[in-house]
Amino acid sequence: MKLRDLEYFCYLYKVGTFTGVAKHFKVEQPTVTLAIKRLEDALKTKLAFRDRSKGLIQITPAGEILYRHASNMLRDAKLADLEINHYNSKKIRFGLPPIIGSLYFPLVIDGIIQDHLLDDLEVDETGSQQLLLDLLGGKVDIALLGSPLPIQNDAINTTFLTSRQFVIISSRDHWLNNRQSISFSELKDEPFISLNGRFIHSEVLKVYSDQAKFHPHIIFETQSIETMKRLVEKNAGIGVLVKDAISPADQLATTTLRNPLPERFNISIATRKDYLADAHEQAFISDLFKLQSIINH
Question: Which residues form the HTH lysR-type domain (predicted)?
Fold first, then answer.
């Protein structure tokens, strides 16, 4: 089976017309028809038929099976192409979330410089939720990821480094300034400033509010941790943030959550499953692993 034929079939599955497939791939319609016929001949089964009452192509049960496997095959082929093209590039495509980048990555930068790896880094800086997608899609090959629970994903390998505590942040003018700890249910009437869905903080906020049986009133979402902290300082709302992200210079109060859930700010080194790291990527991963002893010291 040709990969191009599988691409045509998978797109046919999505749009339901040969014309739509031909237009998308900028080919003549008979080219698509012949590709589907080649697949049917190779597999000795019917994959699709025309439903004239609906004017669309209907996929057979055999076609449903092929679509599931073909989607994985095309994804793996794309990843193989990306990995082969980058294997000898001397570049380390690295995913780094902002909080981990500002708080923890500098702790191992001396070793990275000594190993002459800093110039090799191509850094993708965004939240951990987005970086996980970038890792799976082949945009990055190595990432430091934050997650509310230890990562369970069959498509990636992870090395757990540490976990850190989430706290409630508020203005020093807010009534929470006088509270050392609080139950999340007591915050049901509070406005929240939240990091957006690229960060795990939005997921943690949802988990806590679900457990407390209320829907949080989010008045502002941002992808900037500094913006979040400044708005909270102005008493525009409160927020959920990993405790390590708060510095002495921040004019913020922190309140510990009583009866904390298992969700914490877990930090892991992640690569795709079966990814073949070259020598300088392996040296880089070894430098990152030193975070485990430094942070937990």
Answer: 1-60
- What are the angstrom distances between the C-alpha of 127 and each of 89, 182, 278, 281? 26, 27, 26, 22
Report which of 182, 202, 204 is spatially closest to residue 194, judged by C-alpha positions. 202
Helices (DSSP H) in 16-106: which residue ranges?
Answer: 18-25, 29-43, 61-87, 98-103
Domains and CATH numbers, the chain: 3-86 (1.10.10.10), 88-163+265-295 (3.40.190.10), 166-257 (3.40.190.10)
Whole-number pLDDT of residue 208: 93
- Give tens-digit pLDDT for 4-13: 999 999 999 9
pTM: 0.68
* Burial (0-12, 13-18, 19+ Cβ within 10 Å), 61: exposed
Amino acid in the structure at residue 82: L
pLDDT in tens, 17-58: 899 999 999 999 999 999 999 999 999 999 988 877 666 888
Longest Cα–Cα distance of the chain, Å, equals 74
| pLDDT value of residue 291 | 93
DSSP state string for 169-215: EEETTSGGGG-SEE-GGGGTTSEEEEE-TTSHHHHHHHHHHHHHT--
Beta bridge partners of 269: 144, 159
Count other Cβ atoms within 10 Å, centred on residue 161: 22
